[in-house]
Design a protein that fits this description.
Layout: H1 33-36, E1 39-45, H2 64-72, E2 74-80, H3 86-95, E3 110-111, H4 119-125, E4 129-134, E5 140-141, E6 154-156, H5 172-182, E7 189-194, H6 206-209, H7 227-257, E8 263-269, H8 284-287, E9 291-294, E10 303-310, H9 314-321, H10 336-339, E11 353-358, E12 373-378, E13 381-386, H11 414-421, H12 429-436, E14 442-446, H13 464-480, E15 498-499, E16 502-503
Parallel strand pairs: 1-7, 1-8, 2-10, 3-5, 4-6, 4-7
Antiparallel strand pairs: 2-9, 8-9, 11-12, 12-13, 13-14, 15-16
Helix pairs in contact: 4-9, 5-7
Length: about 500
């Protein structure tokens, strides 16, 4: 199910904003300074794992435009979402904060609260022209009237009938072209291009119709190797290619307008793929995302960085690139020093981990309960703390949670259907349990011997020291960043569930 989008000028010094906080301070005050700052094109796909791109090793997915960005820019090999769920991930990207600091904005079908400073608004207050198309922040309730300016500026929603069957009809690139034609030429611009691809559901067999072969599907080890599952991965891959086509058209539009090399281009996804044990889970399949940044003249291209980057880091990064001070509420760290370093590999030795969080996705458990988790990912280990191990991690098995059915935190699709239909098959039972079975309070995965994160060694005496170190480190980070769970509070199950027009339940 795809969710559509729900739908101040640069001066020196500091001014008081709408909410009584300081507005952004620009670094330069000379005439024309605003126009000398970079344009920003922010491209974000929906539910795409890093592993499913040519630049990240999947040569059977043809994404020449992401490949171009990689050749001419910087690729992050350790980029992670803040949360493997659409709305909270996007809240974290906007605010530069982990989801547990964002109250009801940190949930699917939550409410975007104007109390949290957002980089898209700060840029507009600093003189940027803002526009958007496709999926921005959703699904949930965005009360636009409560914001000083709309977080995503003017929305462009023209449809494109020539899109392939099963794809979103939104003409993302065409809408960007329209924005370029309308924008004020003497100001920098920021445009959010959010595709609905490759979110479920898929046009069955589309990948095969496009000439793909079953053996080309790149499967995660947590799925059984069956033709039905390979076919679904090919359909998912085809949607990734479609999104790349729109990226290519957007880059071509920038070239025609003479703005390409004056534009900082970011390509990423909100979290990993929507198949079982990926989305709504803290394993790499659900949390490791592509992140590529291009900006000639400031960012030396052709580099691969192993520094850990969390998607909330993009908020202070883009503000710093624009010469706008990040508000103190943004606890994320700017990537600008790493991007502009001209070095490859691990540039900043302190960037050696990422924290990931999850609370509530769909209403797939009784009493509106979520499945709260926190995770710490390093080079060597993935540690996960499950706060309610007696709950079912994918949802109650006897509760029909619309629109996804039983185990409602897994999207409907061929792989989920296969696991449910073959749960009693001895060759499938293990994969079924990996996807939906109850989990212990602690999980620890040794990435050197188990990169697919299938064997939990948290209870193994040989890993006691490593588990304790990871636990202590995670708890210290959560305390410093103000996670309510570290204070014994857990308000998330009590927050409302919203639709586009307001509260649903």
């Amino acid at each position: 199910m795809k969710f559509p989008f729900l739908s101040l000028f640069g001066v020196a010094g500091v001014a008081v904003g709408v909410h009584g906080v300081s507005m952004p301070q620009l670094r330069a005050a000379e005439p024309g300074a605003a126009r000398n700052r970079p344009n920003i094109l922010f491209v974000i796909t929906d539910d795409q794992s890093a592993a499913h791109l040519g630049a990240y090793g999947d040569r059977h997915i043809r994404t020449p435009n992401v490949d171009r960005l990689t050749r001419e820019g910087v690729r992050f090999d350790n980029a992670f979402t803040a949360c493997p769920s659409c709305t909270p991930s996007r809240s974290a990207i906007l605010t530069g904060q982990p989801i547990y600091r964002l109250e009801e904005s940190g949930l699917l079908m939550g409410r975007l609260l104007p109390k949290f400073p957002m980089w898209t608004i700060r840029l507009q207050e600093a003189g940027y022209t803002m526009g958007s198309t496709g999926k921005t922040w959703s699904p949930g309730f965005l009360p636009a009237a409560e914001f000083p300016v709309h977080p995503f500026g003017k929305t462009y929603a023209q449809k494109r009938q020539m899109n392939p069957p099963g794809m979103s009809p939104v003409d993302y690139a065409g809408n960007f072209e329209e924005f370029l034609a309308e924008r004020t030429k003497d100001r920098p611009f920021c445009f959010w291009l959010g595709t609905s691809e490759p979110h479920q559901s898929y046009a069955k067999g589309l990948g095969l119709k496009r000439g793909k072969a079953l053996e080309q599907a790149r499967l995660f080890a947590c799925w059984p190797d069956r033709p039905e599952i390979r076919e679904e991965v090919l359909d998912y891959s085809t949607e990734i290619e479609h999104a790349d086509e729109h990226l290519g058209r957007a880059l071509a539009a920038l070239e025609r307008s003479g703005e390409l090399d004056r534009t900082l281009v970011v390509f990423t996804s909100d979290h990993g793929n929507p198949l079982p044990r990926a989305k709504c889970n803290l394993y790499d399949a659900g949390t490791r995302v592509p992140l590529v940044v291009r900006y000639p003249g400031k960012i030396a291209g052709g580099r691969v960085l192993t520094d850990f980057a969390s998607l909330p880091d993009l908020a202070p990064t883009l503000l710093e690139a624009a010469g706008v001070l990040a508000p103190k509420e943004m606890t994320a760290r700017s990537l600008w020093p790493v991007l502009t370093s001209k070095r490859a590999g691990r540039v900043d030795r302190s960037r050696d981990s990422a924290v990931i969080a999850f609370e509530r996705h769909t209403l797939c458990r009784r009493d509106r309960q979520g499945y709260p988790m926190r995770g710490l990912r390093t080079d060597d280990f993935l540690y996960i703390r499950n706060y309610e191990p007696d709950r079912w991690p994918a949802g109650d098995p006897d509760l029909d949670a619309k629109p996804q059915g039983v185990f409602g935190d897994i999207d409907r699709g061929a792989t989920k259907e296969y696991l449910l239909e073959h749960r009693d098959d001895p060759t499938v039972q293990r994969f079924y349990e990996l996807a939906v079975g109850r989990r212990p309070a602690e999980e620890l995965y040794d990435l050197k011997s188990d990169p697919d994160q299938l064997r939990n060694v948290a209870a193994d005496p040989a890993f006691t020291r490593s588990r304790k170190k990871m636990t202590a480190r995670l708890e210290e980070i959560l305390r410093k960043t103000g996670d309510p769970r570290q204070q014994g509070r857990a308000p998330w199950d009590g927050y409302p569930y919203y639709g586009a027009g307001g509260m649903i339940r």
